[in-house]
Amino acid sequence: MRSRVVKVGMLGTLSMSLAACGSSSSVADCVDGYSYRDGRYKVVNDRDCDSLSGGRYFWYYGGTTSGLQVSNGTTLKPRKGEIKSRAGRVLQRGGFGSKSSSGG
Prior knowledge:
Number of helices: 1
Oligomer: single chain
Strand content: 25-35%
């Protein structure tokens, strides 16, 4: 009887580990590329990244915000997992058992 409890416990741990690996998510901020100063970008409205702005506005991933500025992130889009803007807009769906979409 005790061995069953151990097996179930190990299976539960494995399931939780797999779920955690598959639920990776990232946050993105739409930033003004012309505003870069002291390692920070100015955060702008999400819809600015939808406009044809000649590259002025772009998505900045995984950064740390301070007021209306963001730093310590990257312009390289994560390949896997879900990406959401801080406003909650889903930019890329992903996670365990699904494919990442392109775009964004």
